[in-house]
From TrEMBL:
Binds 2 Zn(2+) ions per subunit. The lineage of its organism: Bacteria, Bacillati, Actinomycetota, Actinomycetes, Pseudonocardiales. InterPro entries: Amidase_Cbmase, Bact_exopeptidase_dim_dom, Peptidase_M20, Peptidase_M20_dimer. Keywords: Hydrolase, Metal-binding, Zinc. NCBIfam families: hydantase. Zn(2+) 2 binds at D101, E135, H390. Zn(2+) 1 binds at H90, D101, H197. This is N-carbamoyl-L-amino-acid hydrolase. It comes from Saccharopolyspora spinosa.
Amino acid sequence: MTGTYRRTTVPEIDGESLWQRLAELSVVGRATGGGVTRLALTEADAQGRRLVESWLAETGCEINHDAIGNTIAILPGTDPGLSPVLLGSHVDSVVNAGRFDGCLGVLGAVEVLRAVAAGPRPRRSLAVAVFTDEEGTRFGRDLLGSSVACGLLGPEEALAIADSEGRTVEHELRVHGLLGTAPLLVDRPPHAYLETHIEQGPVLLRENLPVAAVTGVVGTSWIRITLTGAAAHAGATPMEMRRDAGLAMSALRLRLHALTDDHPGLTVAVGAMNTLPQQVNVVPAAATLTVDLRASEEAVLAKAESAIRLLAEDAALTYGCELTTCERMSRTAPATFDPGMVDRVAGRIEAHGLPGRRLWSGAGHDAQQLATICPTAMVFVRSQRDGISHSPEEWSLPEDCTLGVQIMAEVAIDLLND
Ligand code: HGY
Ligand code: MN
Ligand code: MN
Ligand code: MN
């Protein structure tokens, strides 16, 4: 169902400009694997932020940063005392990522700003947020910027988080001149928040639909586990005398995946795994792995989390090892979006002559944090190539991107005149 969609009365989103800017931003942090690497608060991420802020400035917005470096741009309405309508997302990425994850939402918001700035000023101000460190891959805490903005994580605690080389979030924000004094969103909640994002899954592609209204987002729990055994000679040590931490970790990994059998709706991923001392002829003395648990129901997520420690202790014991650490790295709660906001998005999709498909998100998003402080909804845009994401293969069609942002613009413009 591609091709042209019925236009509506509101200003049309400039799809050309959106596509151009997605391409331009994708050059910042170009990775050798052909994708994009803009890990949070690296020079590449800061360069990406500066490029986006230059485009925000062109629309006449006032631009500030808050205590965790979130960019907050505001286009004043005729009644600036009213709480603003906020659009946003992120431009930091995982390693060797695609060009759409987060960027579609931020650059879509830029296009909505351009369309609104070109017309009669609405009552409410229109604000755009570019959140710091949504991905969490460098500092180990996902949705960092939006969690602080929404009062779910203290600024001091967040600023003190360090990466594996000991560089703190605060240090990196200072290096890039992103530390600011703008009020946190929780202190002045927006009237509403909207985010456009690629689905990062196969559902819309399979159903041949370009867009959907997102009904909610899974909760996520990241846990790091270390098992300790004993280094030993790979040849001379009899098998029954070994305390092989690598073997214990492999057994644990299989048991973690088996959790999905007794917890319907749970997803499990072991994204990082390594053994020490990483020598071909030494039985591993230690092994570390990270677990990414997700569920749309809090009870399912909590039950899976509580099972982890027992599984790790049991796997360690089975192979004569010890469980040394089982620490939570990050935790976000599942979020159900405001039904009225979801209806607005679905209604605008139907106004374009399309089914108002509602869909739950298996990926985490800044919107799940914003949902704790104001009415929130998301627009999903179809992902191509089986929905692959967090990969250079990530792809979406220009007309689907334009339609998704057009839907967001139409909902936003209604809210701006609320
Ligand atoms: O992991 C996630 O779902 C998101 O991309 N941070
Ligand atoms: Mn994202
Ligand atoms: Mn992502
Ligand atoms: Mn995400």
